[in-house]
Structures
1.
Amino acid sequence: MLHRLRHGSISFYTASFITPDLSSASVYVEFCDRGSLENLITAYGEHRNSVPNNQKPEVPERFIWHAFAGLCDGLAYLFGGRSYIAEGVTDYTPDPKWIPVLHRDMKPDNVLLRSRETLGSKRYWYCVLSDFGLACEDRPRGHPSEDRYQHLQSQLGTAHYYAPELCYNPYPKTTEETTYFPGDQRHSAKSDLWALGASMYNLADCGPHIMHDGRAVTGGFAHINWSNWYQKPPTMQAHTFYSGTLSRKPVLDVSKINSNRGYSKQLRDAILQATEQDPKKRPSPIKMVGSIKLLMAQAGFHGHVPEGSNDELPSWASKVHDYHSRTPITPSQLAEMQEAERSKNR
């Protein structure tokens, strides 16, 4: 699947190998040197927890738009087979020959950050959707190539990021309900979009969040209604709680976030559109790209280059690898390393 996907916001396939006896296989994808969006959210949460209120760092709105636009266009590409984010694009119809792809595990931990190819570039890092281990082609019901988990409506993915239509109200109560999605529901392009919207809400919030027992939770969990945690029966497992509407905030409104600078009405509206509770009213990823382009322009955010210190991301916000400055390994050095490895295994 990765071999046929070509988009700047999707993990780039490099090579793959299968051993002759078919006992193992490996896939090589691009190296993303800046960690993940989850790492960034957690770093902000930890810093926000250690300084006074008036000094709490906040993720620049320009970076949120940068991540939101690129990743939404990535989902639109999975859905429609082409990119829609360029300003000149006005045709939002899918490629008729394209077979749509569902990610089914959209979350900050699966968004990797990668430096620009040009050293010293001022533009924000690339935000790359990765981990396609649960991805599948979005075939119609009953199609011979329909994914079996889609056919059975089996639960899979990360329960924290199930869209509302995939959750039980208020939570699963039987073994069967903890195994299958409710009613006639299963993963869709719209459920992938909801998870992206929730991820952007978490990026704007950045925690940490204090649960009822005094335990602080950092990371991408701002969309979880922690006040309901104590209402769950003592025997209920955490996964079951997260699989129910009891764990969800009904509205993800960034204007309610306690921040010093505040975020624009347009960003609020974009996240509300993406996280619309009713999937019938929620736009497709392609339509959402059109909304993001319009709202982003209205908010005055053009381009992906920080404009001033308030737009910049601090050095502690991401991992840093020095692979750009390392001396390349020569063929003879590689041969010596391989021989040493063989000797060790004899």
2.
Amino acid sequence: MWQSNFHYYAALSLPNGDQVGEVRLKVDWIPALRWAEFERYLKDSSIEPNSASAVIEPIWDPEGTPPYIGGAGIRLDKERAVAVSFPLSYFSAALSAASSQLIASGALSVGQEIAYRIYALADERPQPRADCGVAIVALDEPPAIETADLSSLLSEARMVSSIGGDENGNSDPADLARMPVLVPQLVLDEATALGQQVGDIETGGILVGKLLRGADGTLFSRVTAQIPVEHTAATQRSLRFTHATWASVDAAIRLRARDEIPLGWWHSHPEFCHLCSPEQRALCPLAVPLFSQADKDLHREVFQQPWSIGLLLSFLGKKQPSYDVFAWHRGQIEAVNFFILPGEARHSGVSP
């Protein structure tokens, strides 16, 4: 259950200062709530998940005056301080949706540059508590967390900078606070082989493994296998899971009998670039690794757990793809660095 007595708005303007208008933002708070409860669980796993009574409230802009905000915060108990704060970037999805409505109405043009400020106004009417469906569903049955020697694993692993890193392979400093993700080379090899087999359509699979804790208390995830998905609806630009897909995945996990949990998914972006000339590829905005809005929507809908990851294979006209990992961080889906564990290549469909 959660409560918010504020509505959020964006004041939009053109670069020259002309006002475009003001729009009310429809903010999806569920990922933020899940993340806040996850952080709470990591700090104290003895607390019952359903004892939380979340309150969402604005964080006022320290360089301005109310009602303009610099982010939002979640209190998990009325008597306590803000447990987790979220930056203005958390409002990006809501702002994008509102901008699309302005484009449809003709108030904005496609590609038009705009500036914005976000503000919050209190709703004077008493607001009933909202059942967000996560109260906190993500942790009603906390996953089993085993112990493992993270230092030893990392000493053998190779770090890969996803597309969120800079040109020198360095990630944002905040990346150090994210949960490390370890993926065996074997899993990447199997996924690559499957992507090569299907050619010009997308394919994918479910990543299974375990949540682990190192000696210093660091929580990390280790992928142990990929389960190729069946009964999907796939095209050159999309992949959709069905009920039959999940039935086959559940059966595979039970047959493996290794106490694994779903950690996320992987999918490929096919090598459709080979249909274009080198000159066209050089100018194409799609000729880069891209976790698209459709990918994010699927991740948001299906892989809601705070530890869920998405592995993207981008062929981009090449036989060997690039690899990027996306994960939840403070309620947003972001590219993260990950670690590849060494191993010999096999293409058996499911790794040991």
3.
Amino acid sequence: MGKWDKRRIWLHAGFILSVLLLLCISRYYYMGYPGEKGAWIDVADYIFLPAFIYLGRWFCIKWFTQNRPVLFLFYIIPCFFLMLIFWFYFVMFAFNLPNIGFLEFSVSHAPLFIIGVITGILIKLVKAYTEKQVQDAKLLAEQKQSELNLLQSQLSPHFLFNTLNNMYGISIAEHTRIPALLLKLSDLLRYSVYETKKTFVPLKEELDYINNYIAFEKMRISDRLVLAEEIEDVNDPRVMIAPMVLIIFIENAFKHAKDTLEQQIHIRISLKISGNFILFTISNSYRKEKEESGILSESSGLGLANTIKRLDLLYGVDYTLKSYIQNNQYNVDLRLKIM
């Protein structure tokens, strides 16, 4: 007999003993010690009651939960009366009551056994409903995890594609800068490949990655970049964040800012902790003649769309994200609950 079978046996035995103990204590509390024959019959009824509870439970499993209520009633009613008849003859002979009538016996004893049957049915229905809810929750969690894994698997290729595309342009005009950029790229890829497999990482690690990325962009853009940073130092490893969330917005800011007609690229990055939330803001210059209609415009790319899906999956209602244009700047405000 397996471990699970033994566990079930102990569980059912504990349930039966609990029911008997509760009924006997209740009877003793309200009616005192069972000194008379009728009182002992009551105790015997309590001992037989679990049989009716399991009758209701078993028929509920067999037919009611299978959406076959007609068969359920067809079988349970005759079985109930057969068990009642059996108990009638047992009580009549065990307690020496030859003059007791079946109708009289049924009127006084059947209500308790009907309650037992109903209790068994309700227990099974509650259990079936709970198991269904748990199963649905597991399926939903598995579905979300599969979708999350797919989205995370697309982060590194997206970043690598954009970076290599930028480096190709540099290699044509300023090939001497390529070795230093490749070293920085190696550090960035190491994080994006290995750390993005985790659901959450310390914010400090994510900020180290962001600082490496900014250093990479400074080397790439050189004198055109006018960067303002207000990034709070976060050394507490308990402050967690989903990996590669912030970097997508920073990457898009650099991508779109360099498309402006102005000689200089203006980018401002702000991150601070306020209470139980991470407040992240980034703004960049933009082209007026190609004004974006929102954070998910056609030019936003796959990475940003996937990031928003990941935010929905991981944070749900615990984040807010908005974008707007103000004073020739494209702004993104992100508010994340610390995980």
4.
Amino acid sequence: MGAGVGSDSPATTSHAGAIVAEGDFALAVYDENPAMAEQAAKDFGVLAIGNLRQDDLAAFDVAVICTPTDTHVPYLRKLLAAGARVIVCEKPVCNDLRSLRTAEQTYDRGESLVLVNYFRRFLPAYAALQSTIARLASGQGVRAIAVRYQRGFLNNASHALDLLQFLLGWDILAAKASVTSCSADEFPNDPTLSLCGVWNDAELTVTGLPRVKFSLFEIDIFMEQSAVRIYDRGDVVEIETAKKGGGYYSPLRTISRRSDCLGACLHHLYVRVRKVLQGKTAEDNFAASLRLAQWMLHTRKRGAKACHD
């Protein structure tokens, strides 16, 4: 994830590769395993750092945390104290409520902006979709939302729920949902949950698919006479609508379809980083990511209890 060491295409699938491709960042890499850092430095022709000394961290404008989730908050504390202008952190921010509170308090005391890599919210296709949904929903209202995912509630359902926060402008803390099923299939500490509830008067269903051997990420947003369908990992977005009138409910028909929505996803993340550095925006998504983590961790706790019961 950080440097793609050992993968077939590290230059296109890793943060280090994306940063080098941008062409205007001087990159240094660090890993607790020095051999990994040296290999990454060799792959990309950049500097490997042997120790993360606090004085040295202050020299960096941008820092990227692509480490196991339970190490995110300790690194965030170091980087926020060092005053890095922009911190990019892989999702989720943390995997327990104590770390979440620490992250929130540390962020409030610092001046850095933190971009959590729920990458779909940084893509042009989804910025355009946000405007389309606002236009459609203004006259119809959102009636129901359906999410389908697999491989861990916090790890993967969080992508869908964050995207919904972004597209609808809704706060996840307003959602009320009950856990309907739980399967500790892929990650022992992050079961795949299914939920049913209400979010801002819209029916919310989240269907987790345990023990399936394929990749799935789908979202349906249903309005009174329109639907937005997001599928193929979010790479395809379709807008559907029904004819008005006629004395009976008309079927939906596709009026627009956009593919390749995920193209160059890490590039667009670093476009946002550059805008922050240039003073063109002072907006990050850290607070929204913490609220999402809070809601999901509480929900996961209820789900884990259901697993054991």
